[in-house]
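Q: I'm teaching a short session on how sequence maps to structure, and I want students to see two examples side by side rather than one. Could you give me a first protein with its sequence written out and its structure tokens following it? Keep the formatting plain so it prints cleanly on a handout.
A: Of course. Example one:
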Amino acid sequence: MRLKAALFLIFCGLLSAATWASAAEVHGLWVWKSQSVLEAPRAAEALRDFCQSQGINEVYVSVSTRNTASDDNHAARLISVLHRSNIRAEALLSSENADEGGKHLDKLLDHVRQIIQFNQRQPDRFDGIHLDIEPQQRPENKGPCNLRFLPGLDDAHRANPHYAGWARHSYNDYLKQSQ
């Protein structure tokens, strides 16, 4: 009898651990050219409906450095619609050259600051910043085992004045603390 009870408890523990693990999984969607995507009528609701139908619980929304007030309104509305459905929204910032430092890195860091300022102005905020730094897209970084760009890539991430260490914190952590 004790063996059956022990096996039952182990089974229940494994079942609840598996359920928790699947609930904690992130199923994300990258939305490029989001300004034009969000201009369509009911775009936020259509994106939300698609995410719900596909089990997507996190959306990475590209944000231009040339955002207008209209773009900010579209983004704020999208974030609100997604949050009401328990879908996270992160600002997606992209660069092929930030690992080179200088003006390229300065441009990316200015973009990070724009997102932080956006979050300070909005009741519904981005949940994080998703950096898509891709030096491997440049021709000089193509080819097998060509990893010369890695130190610059690490430097680009660490250059953020709010960076606290990849292993312990993320931009998401900073955004939560600054809200």
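Q: Perfect. Now a second example for contrast.
A: Example two:
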Amino acid sequence: MWGSTKIRKHLWNREFAKGRWNCLDETPEDCVYCYVEKYCKGGSILDLGCGSGNTGNELDVNKYQDYTGVDVSDVAIQKAMERTKRVGRCEKNHYFQSDIYTYLPRKKYDVILFRDSIYYIPQPRIDPTLDRYSNYLTEHGVFIVRIFDGENHARVVSGIEHSFEIAEKYVSPNTNLAGMKQGEAKPNREETIVMRSQGSMFLERTIAP
């Protein structure tokens, strides 16, 4: 969803209010969590495009110090805050309604996460966006980019890979393509990319074919 902040806020508010993304409210086994927990090293997390709060409330509460979620939709932010209150994480989790393009972090973070949100940024603006947010990474901080359908968003993945050095790639064989029935939709290829912006940059890419 591209357009002005006002337009995107309206569209996302409508979708969250109608329950369009309720299917993502519970994702406790998502492969991105182990990477967030590994690289934050008990520190701070900034989640850009946090939606209704599943990441901040499904991470192991003992694996991070504080979490900040940002989303253009105030409907999503309200849902995230309500869920956080229900599970008792109000002291650790904080949420702000803001546009990713203009949000100004108040501190530096060990992990800055784009979980299924980076492909809503027009491709020419992805590198400038990452460059701006790199100023808010700690010395050993990383970006983590989660892409639900890496095949359909191959240009986004290619652009990121062109800008950063790939250090490691892991393929998770958790889908049996050979066992698919005729006419069944091919499963999405999920990708998680971890990258540093300081010194020798690298990406770690996780693919679930």
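Q: What should students look for in example two?
A: Point them to this: The helical segments are 5-17, 32-40, 54-58, 74-87, 123-134, 154-163. Also worth mentioning: The domain at 5-20+30-208 is CATH 3.40.50.150 (Rossmann fold).
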